[in-house]
Amino acid sequence: MYDRAVQGDTIAPEARAGRPSAPEFDVLLAEYRSVRAFSEELCRPLAIEDYVVQSMDDVSPTKWHLGHVSWFFETFLLLPELGGYEPFHPRFSFVFNSYYNAVGERHPRPQRGVLARPTVAEVLAYRRHVDRHMTRLLANVSAAAERVASVVEIGLHHEQQHQELMVTDFKHVFGVNPLHPAYRPASAGGNGAPPGPLEWVPCAGGLRWFGHAGPGFAYDNEGPRHRRFLPPYRLADRLVTNGEYVNFMADGGYRRPELWLSDGWDAVNREGWEAPLYWSRDGSDWQQATLSGLRPLAPSEPVVHVSYFEADAYARWAGVRLPTEFEWEAAAMDATPAAAVANFVEEKAFHPRPCPPSAGLRQLYGDAWEWTASDYAPFPGYRPAPGALGEYNGKFMCNQYVLRGGSCATPRAHVRATYRNFFPPGKRWQFSGIRLADEG
To answer: Structure pTM?
Structure first.
């Protein structure tokens, strides 16, 4: 069902091809149940009060995430494809619609946290209702089998996106709490050995193909496949660490306007930034809020929760730059399988880990999304899909930057070398980090 991120199926299994058959729908139903179960598994450490908090506009309450992904299957599959289906609640479409204007009106995003109802129990009952009817749908392959399979696949990847958002939203909800609660106990390996000096990996460049090709799932923004010319360049072999970022801060990084883009400097002064999100002073030392509670800063771990502005300023301070998304993708396609050794959400570390020892490019996948210098823009020949599902990606291609690689909150099967994540340049609550680039 899923595309491969690198050679050797080291990230995800090979995909189906052609018209789905009844046995394939059995596989699809199993995948549906697995993805849906993992969403609820991620919620098990929560208290009931944790499900309802919206700690800032970008964060959604956990119960809203659980309801929204169920609304997606109800709206785009059960209502059009399952004869006689009755919605669970006549107003849930208004409550759980996110940004699909073609579907109808919706509750304002910044006000999701003011809704005491539906209760968590009602949202979980909604999930059971949708799951029962999705089982009926997938057990009865119809003439619309290809469309059903395609939309189920989108829905499962959509739910995996929300699994990642739930983890990052858990972190913000807990991270702003003065009691510094823990989502789960700390895992081993946080304070690993220093990764050694940053090394540069030469990349030949040349005329290369970019974008998704072949069987397997991809979002529409990963195509059409096209060619671009890349001059020779170099990529850092690993992500920038906390310890290296502290050196930037100690050298006045947040006080030197010459290092910053104009909008970035405005954000520094407007928001009072002096360190990455979740960092705070402990006397003369730094500590950081994690999903395992407050703990001393680990210098060997990758720096995360930095904005594009901070990543760009750090690169200027280091005398280099951020890679373009095409430099990143070309290098990922050429990388050895060792580059795919990754810390994804299934590892349940819920925190980036120090770089493992090996030669060549490392940490391409997992740990941290990597800011690139590329605007989130359409590839040549891109056209959004027709209908409401066409609103999924295309309408956001403005004022955002592309990130590549996945993070410690990303599901493993959700990542591939062509995946294009995107956020506005000032956002910091995702596990976003820094890989440097330079001319060849």
So the answer is: 0.93
